[in-house]
Design brief:
With about 220 residues, the protein is α/β, with parallel strands linked by helices. It folds into two domains: about 1-120, 3-Layer(aba) Sandwich (Rossmann fold), CATH 3.40.50; about 125-220, Winged helix-like DNA-binding domain superfamily/Winged helix DNA-binding domain (Arc Repressor Mutant, subunit A, Orthogonal Bundle), CATH 1.10.10. The protein has helices spanning about 10-20, 30-40, 45, 65-70, 85-95, 105-120, 150-160, 170-180, 190-205; strands at about 1-5, 25-30, 50-55, 75-80, 95-100, 125-130, 130-135, 140, 145, 210-215, 215-220. Strands 2-1-3-4-5 form a five-stranded parallel sheet, sandwiched between helices. Strands 6-7-8-9 form a four-stranded antiparallel sheet, with helices on one face. Strands 10-11 form a two-stranded antiparallel sheet. A hairpin with a 2-residue loop joins strand 6 (about 125-130) and strand 7. Helix 7 crosses helix 9. The protein is globular and about 55 Å long. Keywords: DNA-binding, Phosphoprotein, Transcription, Transcription regulation. Pfam families: Response_reg, Trans_reg_C. InterPro entries: CheY-like_superfamily, OmpR/PhoB-type_DNA-bd, Sig_transdc_resp-reg_C-effctor, Sig_transdc_resp-reg_receiver, WalR-like, WH-like_DNA-bd_sf.
Length: about 220
């Protein structure tokens, strides 16, 4: 999930729509609401956040260092001012990158992946058995051949791969794929997506690579 913080609701809604087209969950906050949320959010909720985008906010209203105290997710400033002084001020405040607007959503996603790779949180891909699972939106490969997947199923596979060796709950998968504030979608939709994904993987691999245990969650195995 991507979190966008901006004084203007029109801006946060616009980014939410653009990320949704890319199959990426997002949530928008006004600065005053974000401050209260980030200081009190549950650890599992923060783990579902892939990055924070900070837009037009009153100076000092959002503290990148406060975010860093709670999570290691990248913090990217979206700047409308093309000046060296403003860029340096944002870096001094603790952001990981400064992006000049307008910017394409795919460039933002690429920058997020690059920052996380440098932090050794993400590799460009993960290999598990015969599967090569990319973290940049490309379809996975099995035995070197692409395996086209719908966006949600691909994102679930990426999330399971990024948590290789750990079991994740249905709630964690839902939060990562749909966002923690999506009240229009039932959490049980995760079971439907995973059922379809397992069937496709089983057909290509000859085995089921998703280990599931009731109440404990899911884990990707070789």
């Amino acid at each position: 999930m991507i979190v966008i913080v901006d004084e203007r609701e029109l801006v946060t809604e616009g980014y939410n729509s653009l990320f949704d087209r890319e199959g990426v969950a997002s949530a928008g906050f006004a600065p005053r609401d974000f401050d209260a949320w980030v200081s009190s959010a549950a650890e599992d909720d923060l783990k579902s956040v892939r990055a924070f985008l900070i837009g037009d906010c009153r100076e000092g209203a959002v503290s990148p260092r406060q975010i860093r105290d709670r999570t290691g997710a990248p913090v990217i400033a979206l700047s409308e001012q093309n000046s060296l002084e403003n860029t340096l001020r944002l870096f001094e405040a603790g952001v990981d990158d400064v992006v000049r607007k307008p910017v394409h959503i795919r460039e933002i996603l690429a920058r997020i992946s690059a920052i996380r790779r440098r932090a050794n949180e993400d590799a460009s891909f993960t290999e598990i058995g015969k599967m090569r699972i990319f973290m940049d939106g490309r379809d996975p490969e099995i035995d070197g051949e692409p395996m086209p997947l719908p966006r949600r199923e691909r994102r679930i596979l990426e999330y399971l791969a990024s948590n290789r060796g750990r079991r994740v709950t249905k709630t964690q998968v839902f939060n990562a794929i749909y966002g923690i504030f999506d009240e229009e979608v039932e959490e049980n939709v995760v079971e439907s997506h995973i059922s379809k994904l397992r069937k496709k993987l089983r057909e290509r691999l000859g085995q089921d690579p998703i280990d599931s245990k009731r109440f404990l969650g899911y884990r990707l195995v070789a």
